[in-house]
Amino acid sequence: MGNFWRGTNVFVTGATGMIGAFLVSDLLSKGSNVVALVKDSEPGSELYRSGNINHISVVNGCLEDFTALENAINIKDIEIVFHLGAQTIVGAAHRFPLHTFEANIRGTYNLLDACRVHSDSVKGTVIASSDKAYGEQEELPYTEEAPLKGRHPYEVSKSCADMLAQSYNHTYGLRIGIARCGNVYGGNDLNFSRIVPGTIRSLMHGEPPEIRSDGTYIRDYIYVKDVARAYMQLAESLGDDNVNGEAFNFGTQRPIEVLELVAAIQKLMNLEEFKPVITSTARGEIENQYLDSGKAHQMLGWRPRYSLEEGLKETIAWYEEYFRCTIRRTDNEQD
User: Rg of the chain's alpha carbons, rounded to an integer?
Assistant: First the structure.
């Protein structure tokens, strides 16, 4: 759909986050008019570093503020909504769940109700759910037919957000697509407790990478640019009644152990001499979790374009530039 995005008014929550910043970049390249909800400025985010912050409209506010969301959608005459904003750190949710419930559950129903109020202008909404919404399942890989049964706080918040999206589609007829992604990695992830950015940072600092699990957990790792494209393809397809209201898994269907992932990063950085430190401190984590993306292949024509090696190479390059800029900025501040 070559002209789908040109001139379209698009609202993005979570625009400073890892996926959001790359999604905004793709939308701008397609000629969209992008409006972003920004709670706090993040100078290190790709949204700022790329200069894209200067080419979008910014609405200051938080997901918990219904008025901010409703005003943004109303005043900017929004047509397509991408709801990516959330508290995404599993460990933080486990330690203090209330903030996660407020951002991920209240934030989602606020956003959905703002779309309901302005359903005359909003033509489609993509909700960023997660493989964590499924909770722990006996059968692998997970398909979209698996029940949503999160148990730990982060999982529960994503299960609830997912079900809220289904409710607003079923009850109010909002055109909604639900995206359930595997573990997303890439540049612009500044949460260094996560395995990919944490490993890269440790190796760049000449330190052994730290693994919070026992290293044998199996995950599906998908590159951020493939996810941004998946969200856009899902939004483009919401006019199809067979797609509207449906949930789709997005993953590579190539699950690997955490230790294998760390080894792949070390190999690409030529720093294989460092032995990972296994801490086994992870709490509220599902051991083995990966997705069947056959539905997205068949109904949306979506497939990942990046192999793990290709995605990791771009990710490592992003962090090399990020830390170079950080060092230069620190040196200039000391002069």
Answer: 19
User: What is the pLDDT, as a whole number, of residue 328?
Assistant: 55
Of the candidates 107, 255, 104, 264, the residue with the CA atom closest to the CA atom of residue 183: 255
Give Dmax (Cα) for the chain.
61
Task: Tell me the pTM.
Answer: 0.95
Kindly give the interhelix angle for 258-268 and 308-334, rounded to the nearest 10 degrees. 60
Give me the helices (H) in the chain, please: 18-29, 46-49, 66-75, 90-95, 97-101, 107-117, 153-172, 195-204, 224-236, 258-268, 294-300, 308-334
Tokens of 295: 């539905």
Task: Write the Ramachandran bin of 127: left for phi over 0, alpha for psi from -120 to 50, otherwise beta.
Answer: beta
Q: Is 154 marked active-site?
A: yes
Q: Residue 184: is it exposed, middle or buried by C-beta count within 10 angstroms (0-12/13-18/19+)? A: buried
Task: With beta carbons less than 8 A apart as the criterion, state whether 252 and 46 touch.
Answer: no
Contact 112, 170 (CB under 8 A): no
Domain 9-182+224-252+290-305: homologous superfamily in CATH: NAD(P)-binding Rossmann-like Domain (3.40.50.720)
Active-site hit among 154, 168, 217, 221: 154
Please write the tens of the pLDDT for every residue from 299-324.
999 999 999 999 999 999 999 999 98
Which tokens hold the place of 62?
A: 């938080």
Residue 184 backbone phi and psi in degrees, to 5: -90, 135
Distance CA 250, CA 90 (A): 20
User: Mean of the pLDDT values across residues 248-270?
Assistant: 97
- Is pLDDT at 73 greater than 80 in this prediction? yes
The arithmetic mean of pLDDT across residues 9-30, rounded, is: 97
From 324, 310, 89, 90, select the one nearest 189 (Cα to Cα).
Answer: 89
pLDDT (tens digit, 9 = 90+) per residue, 163-212?
A: 999 999 999 999 999 999 999 999 999 999 999 999 999 999 999 999 99
